[in-house]
Amino acid sequence: MVHGRFYAFHLARALIARGHDVRVLTNYPGWAAERFGIPASRVKSFVTHAIASRIHDRTLSRLHMSLGQPALHKAFGSWAARNVREDADLIHIFSGVAEETLIRFKGRASPRIQVARGSAHIRSQLELLAEEEKRAGVTIDKPYPWIVAREEREYELAHEIVVLSTFAHRTMAERPPLKRKTVLLLAGVDVARFRPEARTLADRLTRIERGDRLRVLTVGSFSFRKGALDIAAVAKQLHDRADFRFVGDLVRETRALRQKCAGLIEFIPRVPEFQLTTHYSWGDIFLFPTIEDGFAVVVAQAQASGLPVVSTPHCGGPDLITPGMNGQIVPIRSPEVIVDTLLAWDRDRALLKRMMEAKCETLIARDWSSMAIDLEDRFAACAVGMAAASGNEMNPRVLPPCTAN
Question: What is the per-residue pLDDT for 121?
Answer without folding.
Answer: 98
